């Protein structure tokens, strides 16, 4: 309604939100969903047993955590998958150690299942495939969330190049990269192909003057729409349109030695302010567009502190205590922001345990078991095949089964039934599928 009333206003989607939605849909791809589900079983077992957590950190991971945060909930899930893959050698050593074999946890159904997952080579090959397919999008998210520069001039190019990076790392095999491409395209067409994003890409000198730059039709349309909507005067619109030719061919001040040498060094808006002086009408529009950010990530966590604290698990606290908690955690996040600015590391560990719980709750706690009054020690049942043995590869074309609720129902069911004993000497041979190993030919040399 505002856009219709005031034509010079643009509604722009939050890039962080859009990328997070892409990651959410990645998790619905069958192979990714399987890795997430099995990875969560590993972390839930380890992080709910103090003895096992201490054993892992003291002897097998050099004090490092498996859990890793990355700003948003879905990004944190993929960051944790990456961490699991990085620590696969230590995890395999732990589950083959005498301390684990002699512990009571190795004899539980949950322990046997997790052991089979960790010792299964195919599982780690799938993890490697997921990691290399998701990493390009994760890098874009990290760049947007860092807040080090205005993200508007870069987001379109970053997403475009991330798509082709996914294709390249998968050897141009459409069976491997197409499930991820379809997810990206479903969001890019409706969100990232925004006129401001397209115009910012065209007006960014670090991209425009590259040899491989291609002015796609949608990019030109986006630029034209921005000129029409941001410049109300018709004569100045015409002047700005005519000045595009000077910018394209690097004429006048655009082609000076200083302008050429600073195309990639200066921020795009600053470059236009300094070298666009011969094209005043186009300069005015370019500076307005290139000075924008495209993410509200820096404010998102502050808005949601109340929702994160006042959750289902903490819904009976008094108003005074709730206010005190919000005050403390709000200041913790201010402190965290200060620490990150000093260290210049956007990946530094969060000091706010409420934020960590919010981002990684699915990797630590089982909501079904939390809300159940049934004592899990009273469960009994018959033996059935361990689900981790089923490692067939099924790359779907978008018809992925839903992950929602599977952890809640499956974990409680696994406690109710037995599972086959683990043969530590022959575990890998028993669980690896030869066709899977040939298909996932990623190098996992240790």
TrEMBL record:
<dbReference type="InterPro" id="IPR012337">
    <property type="entry name" value="RNaseH-like_sf"/>
</dbReference>
<feature type="compositionally biased region" description="Acidic residues">
    <location>
        <begin position="383"/>
        <end position="397"/>
    </location>
</feature>
<dbReference type="Pfam" id="PF04937">
    <property type="entry name" value="DUF659"/>
</dbReference>
<feature type="domain" description="HAT C-terminal dimerisation">
    <location>
        <begin position="261"/>
        <end position="332"/>
    </location>
</feature>
<feature type="region of interest" description="Disordered">
    <location>
        <begin position="419"/>
        <end position="446"/>
    </location>
</feature>
<feature type="region of interest" description="Disordered">
    <location>
        <begin position="375"/>
        <end position="397"/>
    </location>
</feature>
<protein>
    <recommendedName>
        <fullName>HAT C-terminal dimerisation domain-containing protein</fullName>
    </recommendedName>
</protein>
<feature type="domain" description="DUF659">
    <location>
        <begin position="1"/>
        <end position="42"/>
    </location>
</feature>
<feature type="compositionally biased region" description="Acidic residues">
    <location>
        <begin position="433"/>
        <end position="446"/>
    </location>
</feature>
<dbReference type="Pfam" id="PF05699">
    <property type="entry name" value="Dimer_Tnp_hAT"/>
</dbReference>
<dbReference type="InterPro" id="IPR007021">
    <property type="entry name" value="DUF659"/>
</dbReference>
<dbReference type="InterPro" id="IPR008906">
    <property type="entry name" value="HATC_C_dom"/>
</dbReference>
């Amino acid at each position: 309604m505002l856009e219709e009333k005031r034509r010079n206003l643009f509604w722009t989607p939050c890039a962080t939100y859009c990328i997070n939605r892409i990651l959410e849909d990645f998790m619905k791809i069958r192979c990714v969903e399987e890795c997430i589900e099995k990875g969560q079983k590993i972390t839930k077992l380890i992080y709910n047993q103090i003895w096992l957590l201490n054993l892992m950190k003291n002897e097998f991971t050099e004090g490092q955590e498996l859990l890793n945060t990355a700003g948003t909930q879905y990004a944190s899930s993929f960051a944790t998958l990456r961490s699991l893959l990085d620590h696969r050698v230590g995890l395999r050593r732990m589950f083959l150690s005498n301390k684990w074999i002699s512990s009571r946890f190795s004899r539980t159904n949950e322990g046997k299942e997790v052991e089979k997952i960790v010792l299964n080579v195919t599982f780690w090959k799938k993890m490697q495939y997921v990691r290399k397919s998701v990493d390009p999008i994760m890098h874009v998210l990290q760049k947007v969330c860092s807040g080090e520069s205005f993200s508007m001039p870069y987001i379109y190019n970053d997403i475009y190049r991330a798509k082709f990076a996914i294709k390249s790392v998968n050897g141009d095999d459409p069976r491997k990269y197409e499930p991820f491409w379809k997810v990206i395209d479903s969001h890019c067409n409706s969100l990232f192909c925004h006129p401001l994003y397209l115009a910012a890409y065209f007006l960014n000198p670090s991209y425009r003057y590259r040899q491989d730059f291609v002015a796609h039709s949608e990019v030109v349309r986006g630029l034209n729409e921005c000129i029409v909507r941001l410049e109300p005067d018709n004569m100045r619109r015409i002047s700005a349109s005519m000045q595009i030719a000077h910018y394209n061919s690097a004429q006048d001040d655009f082609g000076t030695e200083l302008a050429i040498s600073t195309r990639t060094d200066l921020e795009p808006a600053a470059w236009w302010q300094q070298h666009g002086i011969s094209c005043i009408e186009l300069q005015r529009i370019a500076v307005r567009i290139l000075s924008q950010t495209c993410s509200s990530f820096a404010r998102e966590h502050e808005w949601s502190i109340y929702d994160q604290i006042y959750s289902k698990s903490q819904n009976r606290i008094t108003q005074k205590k709730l206010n005190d908690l919000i005050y403390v955690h709000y200041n913790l996040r201010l402190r965290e922001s200060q620490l990150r600015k000093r260290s210049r590391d956007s990946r530094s560990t969060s000091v706010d345990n409420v934020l960590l719980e919010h981002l990684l709750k699915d990797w630590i706690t089982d909501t079904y078991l939390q809300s159940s009054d049934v004592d899990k020690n009273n469960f009994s049942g018959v033996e059935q095949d361990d689900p981790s043995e089923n490692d067939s590869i099924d790359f779907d074309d978008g018809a992925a089964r839903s992950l929602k609720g599977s952890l809640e129902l499956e974990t409680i069911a696994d406690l109710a039934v037995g599972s086959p004993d683990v043969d530590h000497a022959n575990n890998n041979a028993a669980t690896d599928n030869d066709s899977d190993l040939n298909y996932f030919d990623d190098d996992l040399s240790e």
